[in-house]
Specification:
Length: 442
């Protein structure tokens, strides 16, 4: 312990730099040449390819695996990038255990799927290391498109539009691009500044201009974007954080997990990131798991992740839940926050036990309390700043199967749009497909 004299409270330096470096090392080590060939050799190259059907971006998985097995990883990478230009990041963060690998025949027959995710990383890393962009811009069309948001959906849309020859301006509220890939995932899932390297590589196709510090609704209006460009794509994600709706959530040290993860991802020195001795995370999705695991890796002594429903209802996959417990996180199911109270210098969180009957959640009448120095809210995000002139469905922008909104000149995709899972790979698919629809319209 680097700060052994402190016994409670939120402090930095709970662990020394060497331990922190080890804790936040790459979650899955990249495959070497021989390992990749062995892993690829396990593929049956199924003619009906259930793995491909399970992939939201419909990458031709049997083809790219075969290309690795024949010693042409660069060709394999192009197969991947043709469907998913952010295939490098998706290889790192996609829940492959519930998508392509779960559908793998090897998984069904043996309980051990082909390591599709790691093979995808092997191929994409190979090509990106050459700083080579495998796609070329078409002849300029003279048309311009505004893309709002430099996250997975916006970047995928911008790149595909650039390949068609359109000029693209990406408006991003932050001072750095990448969106969820840069600010919203656990640091151990994407190490060594990969999100920014991927962004630079993607932009090397040309025809894409980045405009940072530009947020929709804060000086950037939809009407002005429509006047200046031939089409608009909205991919700004979800910037709001849902409230706990319980007493005491406004107390100091009750914060949203999204901000914690973003700050940690931007920290140059992890030993300076503050974390509590006792941490409580409320939620059941990937953000909750990422906040809980990283709190433990930073040196928190006790981390409890509390979810209001059962294990099978959690948004985080079973793999992610098991990852959390393997790192020492305690997961408490069927418990709902009732009150956060100040207990001296620390906090205590009171929970009510719950039960689910016919899909309806109710309290059992029993309760318990957990001590906490730090409480993270991770119960979902909400759309803020959506243009009032667009139709909204379930708190998100209404779109059709092509990503088109109620305005004929505006498309949307990713977390801010209706339909689809809130996954990086889904956002990429929606951005890519919206670009194709925009191009057809223009």
């Amino acid at each position: 312990m680097a700060n052994a004299t402190s016994t409670s409270g939120i402090i930095s330096g709970r662990l020394d730099r060497k331990v922190l470096s080890d804790n936040f090392d790459d979650l899955h080590a990249p495959l070497g040449e021989h390992e990749a060939l062995v892993a690829a050799d396990r593929c049956y190259f199924c003619h009906d390819a259930p793995c491909m059907t399970a992939c939201p971006t419909e990458i031709d998985i049997p083809l790219f695996v075969r290309q690795i097995s024949t010693g042409t990883p660069e060709a394999s990478a192009k197969t991947i990038f043709s469907q998913n230009i952010l295939g490098g990041m998706c290889a790192r963060v996609c829940p492959t255990e519930t998508l392509c690998e779960q559908a793998c025949v090897r998984e069904i027959a043996e309980g051990k799927p082909v390591e599709i995710g790691r093979l995808q990383r092997f191929a994409t890393d190979k090509l990106m290391a050459q700083s080579h962009q495998p796609f070329e811009r078409a002849k300029p069309t003279g048309k311009s498109v505004a893309v709002v948001g430099a996250g997975p959906a916006g970047l995928a849309c911008a790149h595909r539009l650039a390949t068609f020859g359109h000029d693209v301006t990406v408006y991003e509220a932050r001072q750095k691009g990448g969106g969820l890939n840069e600010f919203g995932i656990a640091a151990y899932k994407s190490v060594d500044g990969f999100a920014q390297r991927e962004l630079d590589w993607l932009l090397s196709i040309g025809g894409i201009t980045m405009a940072y510090g530009e947020a929709l609704g804060d000086g950037l209006l939809l009407d002005s974007l429509k006047a200046e460009h031939d089409a608009v794509f909205l991919g700004m994600g979800l910037s709001g954080v849902n409230a706990l709706r319980c007493e005491g959530e406004d107390l100091d040290n009750v914060v949203d997990a999204v901000s914690f993860i973003a700050d940690l991802r931007q920290a140059e020195d992890l030993s300076r990131v503050e974390v509590g001795r006792n941490v409580v995370v409320i939620g059941g999705g990937m953000t909750a798991v990422d906040a809980a695991v990283q709190s433990k890796l930073l040196g928190a002594q006790d981390v409890a992740l509390v979810y209001r429903r059962g294990k099978e209802n959690m948004g985080a996959s079973v793999y992610e839940q098991e990852l959390a417990t393997s790192k020492g996180v305690r997961i408490i199911y069927n418990a709902q926050p009732m009150k956060v109270a100040r207990n001296g210098k620390a906090l205590s969180v009171e929970f009510a036990y719950t039960k689910t009957k016919k899909g309806k959640l109710s309290r059992t009448g029993e309760s318990f309390s957990l001590p906490a120095d730090q409480v993270f809210k991770a119960i979902g995000q909400a759309l803020l700043g959506a243009p009032e002139e667009l139709a909204i469905d379930g708190g998100k922008i209404t779109v059709d199967e092509h990503g088109r909104t109620s305005d004929a000149l505006v498309w949307a995709g990713g977390d801010c749009a209706s339909g689809g899972d809130d996954l990086t790979v889904t956002a990429v698919a929606e951005g890519r497909d919206a670009a194709t629809s925009i191009h057809a319209t223009l």
